[in-house]
Amino acid sequence: MSQNENSDQAAGQTEASESVTTTPDQAQVNQEPLAAVMGAQAAEDSSPEAMQALLAEEQLVHPAAPVTLDETQDGLLFQSFSQPLVVPPMRIPHLGHLCLLSALVGMGSFISVLFLWAASYFHFFGVKTMMQSASEVHLMLGTEAIIYLVAFACSLPIFPLFWQKSLFAGIQWQGATAIRLRSVLGMIVLGCFGLAMLDEWLLPGPANAPIEDLFRSPGAAWIMFAFGVTLAPFFEEFVFRGFLLPSLATACDWTAERFMQKAPLPLDANGHPNWSVPAMVIASILTSLPFALIHVEQQGHSIGPFVLLVTVSLILCAVRLKTRSLAASTMVHACYNFLLFTIMLIGTGGFRHFDKM
Known about the structure:
about 350 residues; mainly alpha; elongated
């Protein structure tokens, strides 16, 4: 064989090898028509067997890269760090805050007992024993005022430490709402007063109720008037519908959420809790019973005044829950007491003729 023939054969083999060898880009171009053919075949034959065969061919063409255990653990590790911490919404006030308020009230009660002891020891207003001081209007209202003021004064700096907001913001005072709704609240006051008149007609109280002993003189009656339309309604609303009512409603919803395995209701735009209707109904009833019980002793444990007190308390709870304003229920409470004392003032000729009561 001649040298020229050997060179021609070598050149032919080189051209054949170059025609067989392809670059990665050329392989990708060659695979694209294959994918188009596979897609056309899948469109013509959509049976499960054909789909599995096409998937197997696809895996051969594009094998998946193996995932090592270290890569999986690293991915989960960084994913756990990247997830934000989910903090459940804080619903205030709750039962823990109510217990703290009860402790403050207990401290005020202890101070009031010391005040009564000092009054009997130094014979304030002519009393000589602790029993006598409990029936003297100045000392009785004085002890209540001490309890109210001590508990409220301690609440002002303590609860903002837990709530990260002021005391009035936490209990939803919302004074502007009460002013804006004053006309509607005035109608509610008249409705409560009408219920009081109807209750007195249908279920009259006893003739000689213990509260009448506090009106033995015009001076005592005027003190009761002032106390009953200012400090008493404010602090009663502060305790019963500022703390007790929302705490019980939150406790009811929390219990239902645990038993039914459901998420809590989101907070409103101001960061205050939203309650379910059953929770609000149960909390209103449980709030109204002790509210009536602390007043029924002054009415001689009569059924008529007790029913009225429960009914008025339910109305005050509805006002507080509907308006989201403790100031609204306080306004209704104070105005309702004002009407009752005004009728008594007119009926007794300026608290001078108590025999006409």
